[in-house]
Amino acid sequence: MRQREPAICLRRSDYSETSQVLHFHTRGWGVARVLAKGAKRPKSSSGGAIDLLSEGELVFIPGSAGGLGTLVEFSETFTRQGLRKEARRLNAALYMVELVGEALAEGDPHPEIFDLLHNGLERLGQDDAPVAAVLAYFQWRLLRCVGLLGELKTCVGCGQAAIPQTAPRGGVFFSSIQGGLLCPACQADASEKRHLDGATLAGLATLAAAEAGRKVSLSDTQAIGVNRLLDYHASHQLGKPLKMARHAIGD
Ligand SMILES: [Zn+2]
């Protein structure tokens, strides 16, 4: 049956001389993989080649039994040209769509993540966008929505507050396998862990406050620390590194 959905293009690959396979995140149907026949011809029904990040109304027939669906029509409403003016905005945007494509299963709708992605891409396209902070907020919310964010208040080892009031000796660590923060006492036994510096911890606290509805802003240093941590965590959870991480997040 035909579906008509707001959709954002997450990924595309060539299928033949004239056709493409496109991955869309649709608002009400979830991720859809569709074959766009003739999409590379100038006068196809889809209006020609469809760019990554472009958003519009997608009409498609879902594939059966996990197979490719068919694109019927795509009318673009957001071209996202603003993102293409600067590499760091574009890289952050491409990281966002890659993360959505990897974190969500096909045909599993998450309208709140569609809206999060739409808002994130729109914000990145604005001249005054704090790129690292927009990406940090996006990663935080996405991982929260899919249940991967982990425990960021108490220690996953012992349940005590993970961040002591006084500067902890040995520092605070995060374990992706154990799914959250480790206090100085518990981190000693963990083989997989990542040390968190003060800026990253402050960034995590700021994001938690923002989620609780307080108006706060992340500094660039905090946002970069959070982005590295959440990228580390996401790549562990997904079982592979994200291709755009090197460009969008850095080492
Ligand atoms: Zn502990």
Brief rundown of the structure:
The protein is of the alpha+beta class and 251 residues long. The chain has helices at 87-103, 111-124, 131-145, 184-187, 198-211, 220-238, 245-248, and strands at 3-14, 20-26, 30-36, 55-61, 69-78, 172-175, 180-182, 194-196.
Please tally the helical runs, counting DSSP H or I stretches of 4 or more residues: 7
Q: How many individual domains?
A: 2
> What percentage of residues falls in helices of 4 or more residues?
25-40%
| CATH class term of the largest domain | Mainly Beta
CATH architecture of the largest domain: Beta Barrel
Round the Cα radius of gyration to an integer and report it.
20 Å
| Strand segment count | 8
Q: What ligands does this structure carry?
A: zinc ion
Give the terminus-to-terminus CA distance. Answer: 45 Å
What amount of the residues lies in strands? 15-25%
What CATH calls the topology of the largest domain is OB fold (Dihydrolipoamide Acetyltransferase, E2P)
The spatial strand order of the largest sheet comes to 1-2-3-5-4
